[in-house]
Amino acid sequence: MIYLFYLIFYGFLLTAIVGLLASWIDRKVTARVQYRVGPPVLQPLIDIVKLLGKETLIPKGASKMTFLGAPLAGLASVILVSTLLWVNNVSSNSTFLGDLIVVIYLLTIPSVSIIMGGFASRNPLASLGASREMKLILGYELPFVLAVFVPVIKSGFSIRLGDILNYQLQNGVIIGSWSGFIAFVVVVMCIQAKLALVPFDIAEAETEIVGGPLIEYSGSGLAVYRLMKNMLLFVLPFFLMILFMGGLRFDGIHLLWGILKYVGLVAIITVIRNTNPRVRIDQAVRFFWGPMTVLASISVIMAFLGL
Amino acid sequence: MAKTIVPIGPYHPLQEEPEFFSLTVEGEKVVDIDVRIGYNHRGIEKLSEMKTFDQSTFVIERICGICSTSHPFAYTRAVEDIISVEVPERAKYIRTIIAEGERIHSHLLWLGLAGHFLGYNTVYMWVWKLREEILDVMEILSGNRNNYAMFKPGGVRRDIKQEDIPDVIKKLDSIIPSLTMIKKAVIDDPVIHARTKGIGVLSKEDAINYAALGPTSRASGVARDVRKDAPYGVYDKIEWNMIVTKNGDVFDKVIVRILEVLEAIKIMKECLLTLPKGEIDLNIKDIPPGEGIGHVEAPRGETFHYVRSDGTNRPVRHKVRAPTFMNLPTFKATVVGETISDATIILAAIDPCYCCTERMAVRNIKGTKLYNGEDLIRLSQEKTEKIKRKMGL
Predict the structure, then answer these.
(1) A35, A133, A204, A208: best mutation site toward chain B, by most B Cβ within 10 Å?
(2) What is the residue range of B29's domain?
(3) By the CB < 8 Å criterion, does B14 face chain A?
(4) Which pLDDT value is given to residue A50?
């Protein structure tokens, strides 16, 4: 019963609200940087509500089930990840063996759902975008998983999120160590790709392939994808906070610190996306398999040596 | 691998105008390209033939919102060529000032769009903010932001007020630091290098063979500029440099345009400071029968106008050739062999202007088929054969 409560209130509602707010912060900061006014606070919500009310068109010859099911699969996995993260964060004792692995698995599902939707829509541009997304996943997953090893090693080879949080509660945050910091930098680059933001918005590149996998989506399908992306904008930084920054605590001044950490992460993401042009897919894969994997490996070795 | 056609256009967020590129791709690699234009045809040449010489200037100005100086400039020069007159000195200076102002705002517009095509929206917004300043300058000088209506056969329509000049020079000076910053940002940014260096290379031979014009050719090392080769206005009286780089890739096209903007600011300031006193208009009354040509260096390359008069108050024939017409075929040399991601920026790198280019669209009588290049060559050859037979050759 308690899990159902977490699923609905923390996993879905709270995550959606914070995600929409974060996407507003992102849009507003971007606008101010670019000498524009920016949208009102409720704009991300209004976008989604409006899209939900629009007609959903299914392209001729598309696989109907996959086409409509893909966004839901993505959204469901994000809600699940969020629930797991919240459960661990609120009561770190209710963790279970291997929930870190479950979270890493579930975090790839949104990208996979975009690939599914793209290929199901039978549009050449969507297929192109989906194949780019596939290459991108192959690129960033390796350094991402390697960098996630660092908190695992630090916390005494535990693959429970709760243990990682408890370790940080007692020994200070992981980002404070050298290995933790390097791994954190790698993971920030990887979540930029997971969020499909510039410079790694290659799969959706609107000036090249017009939104890629999302090109045929309209109405509620698109709304679900938008909601999924906004929620990811909360879930991924939150995951980072749990792994490297000691999570979110609710007692007094720590709550403020937690919020500042989160806003800081969103700010980093926004700054990266506003100060870079889009890279090409081969350059992105080379970037992740080259410098990022090397950095991640170095951080893992350093963590082994206790740095 | 299977070949797929990736359509770009006619409705695509890539470029503002309707145009159609069909890219034949193998995976991500482009193996062939076909360009089809004709969605923007408005029959400007015919319209021009129905107006008087003075009215035509306004029609010609509306060929393109960005080249709204180059076209009337070339047209008025063509008309003056029929009468064989020289416009007064002050009019020449004013014409040069307006033409360079147009070059600045056109290049800045392109620079912003290039940033947008690369997904670098911050550059897009910043450069367009900068462009506002130059539009303000043009508003002070001519009263209009885009279609200046300054030209008429025999001179200019409006004088530049002496008291406006200090303001204008101050505004021009104020954009130089921001522009220098953007120049440095482009030259130093490793990601921009990765996306533009060695991409879409137009070799010097190709640039000559395709007869590329303007910044497209100058970036490939072909020193071709009407302002130097056949000076008009006051380009032969003031000091300025032609910007030529040698690599021919997208990066060099960016650099050529940024440096040309700085050069254009220099020319504008020089002209404003040395503006001579005197008449601004010849008050031409009659156009004698005859034909004339006028060509000017538009921001995109040479714009060429041909006008024929039969002694009435209307041109009997008016032909326009815009620079994009010559630059479009270079896509065959630059896009083929690159990836789709790069195709976007390469297609934009010539700064194409389709509404300038579209002088003609041919349909068969039923109106169902739009002829493409090959059909037109065939039609032309058939016609030549027919004429030959008729003349007994």
Answers:
(1) A208
(2) 3-37+359-390
(3) yes
(4) 92
